[in-house]
Automatic annotation (TrEMBL):
<keyword id="KW-0949">S-adenosyl-L-methionine</keyword>
<feature type="binding site">
    <location>
        <position position="147"/>
    </location>
    <ligand>
        <name>S-adenosyl-L-methionine</name>
    </ligand>
</feature>
<dbReference type="Pfam" id="PF05175">
    <property type="entry name" value="MTS"/>
</dbReference>
<dbReference type="GO" id="GO:0102559">
    <property type="term" value="F:peptide chain release factor N(5)-glutamine methyltransferase activity"/>
</dbReference>
<dbReference type="InterPro" id="IPR002052">
    <property type="entry name" value="DNA_methylase_N6_adenine_CS"/>
</dbReference>
<dbReference type="InterPro" id="IPR004556">
    <property type="entry name" value="HemK-like"/>
</dbReference>
<dbReference type="InterPro" id="IPR007848">
    <property type="entry name" value="Small_mtfrase_dom"/>
</dbReference>
<comment type="function">
    <text>Methylates the class 1 translation termination release factors RF1/PrfA and RF2/PrfB on the glutamine residue of the universally conserved GGQ motif.</text>
</comment>
<keyword id="KW-0808">Transferase</keyword>
<dbReference type="InterPro" id="IPR050320">
    <property type="entry name" value="N5-glutamine_MTase"/>
</dbReference>
<dbReference type="Pfam" id="PF17827">
    <property type="entry name" value="PrmC_N"/>
</dbReference>
<dbReference type="InterPro" id="IPR019874">
    <property type="entry name" value="RF_methyltr_PrmC"/>
</dbReference>
<feature type="binding site">
    <location>
        <begin position="124"/>
        <end position="128"/>
    </location>
    <ligand>
        <name>S-adenosyl-L-methionine</name>
    </ligand>
</feature>
<feature type="binding site">
    <location>
        <position position="189"/>
    </location>
    <ligand>
        <name>S-adenosyl-L-methionine</name>
    </ligand>
</feature>
<feature type="domain" description="Release factor glutamine methyltransferase N-terminal">
    <location>
        <begin position="7"/>
        <end position="75"/>
    </location>
</feature>
<dbReference type="GO" id="GO:0032259">
    <property type="term" value="P:methylation"/>
</dbReference>
<dbReference type="InterPro" id="IPR040758">
    <property type="entry name" value="PrmC_N"/>
</dbReference>
């Protein structure tokens, strides 16, 4: 039996809500299956939905009921106004990370007012969202992105190719692939959730997103400590380091960088929701 689009949407929204999922996901899946913008979907609500499209739509709803993130179902997420391919090899880009990019761009203009050809490294690039966005927003940058996961690098490379961002990719842990060179800017959104916090997270996150991109030892702080210890040998003067953090980690991460860069200006920056979300270290 054929259904009108609005009927299928109502049924899916109720079904998602009954199973503890966000009902608004139904609209996102519907737009994806039909290839419609939000405005077009609204204008076509009373049209009949083809049976094959409904079947595809409903199977996606069922996947999300089972816990699969909608971004992995449709295969992409938006970041800084651009569409990035995502799969279960990479963390889904978050809006908070857009603020790390914006803050970095603003600081670059102040530290290097004349611009120039600066070298930037994105450590633990995942989908490549930070590296690709920085290159496209500041084309004069020479950008290198690293990750420990070969699968993540392949996904990031696809995104760079699709968005026409010229980026070098290196496989390796933390700063290892960057050794032997000097850098003006280093950015990272490393794993920062403690293993003890796993039980507080949604099954949508824990059961599907890569644990290597989520969890870290030493209460989620080990990678910040290692970054702070290793970066002094790699940073030019002036130099800039920016990292995303968990909201309760600001003072600890700030302390790591203050100890290894005693003359630097180190700041904890809040996100749009008023939570500590970034630490920036400016080396004079």
């Amino acid at each position: 039996m054929t259904k009108k689009i609005y009927e299928a949407l109502q049924r899916a929204s109720s079904y998602l809500q009954e199973h503890g999922r966000e009902e608004g996901i139904a609209r996102l899946l519907m737009q994806h299956v039909l290839g419609y913008s939000h405005a077009k979907l609204l204008s076509e609500m009373r049209e009949e939905m083809p049976e094959d499209k409904f079947s595809t739509f409903w199977s996606m709803v069922e996947e999300h009921i089972e816990g699969k993130p909608v971004q992995y179902i449709i295969g992409y997420e938006w970041f800084y106004g651009r569409q990035f391919e995502v799969d279960e090899s990479v963390l889904i880009p978050r809006p908070e990370t857009e603020e790390l990019v914006l803050e970095t761009l603003n600081r670059m203009k102040r530290i290097w007012p004349d611009g120039g050809s600066l070298k930037l490294a994105d450590i633990g690039t995942g989908s490549g969202a930070i590296a690709v966005t920085m290159k496209l927003e500041a084309p004069n940058l020479k950008v290198t992105a690293t990750d420990i996961s070969e699968e993540a690098i392949e996904t990031a490379r696809k995104n760079a190719d699709q968005l026409q961002a010229d980026i070098d990719f290196l496989k390796g842990n933390l700063n290892e692939p960057l050794a032997g060179q000097s850098w003006d800017i280093v950015l990272s959104n490393p794993p920062y959730i403690s293993y003890e916090e796993a039980e507080t997270l949604s099954d949508v996150v824990v059961d599907h997103e890569p644990h290597s991109a989520l969890f870290a030892e030493e209460e989620g702080l080990i990678l910040y400590r290692q970054l702070a210890e290793q970066l002094p040998a790699l940073l030019n003067r002036p130099g800039l380091i920016g990292v995303e953090i968990g909201y309760s980690q600001g003072e600890a991460v700030k302390g790591f960088f203050e100890r290894t860069f005693p003359a630097a200006q180190v700041e904890v920056i809040q996100d749009i929701n008023g939570k500590n979300r970034m630490v920036f270290c400016e080396i004079k």
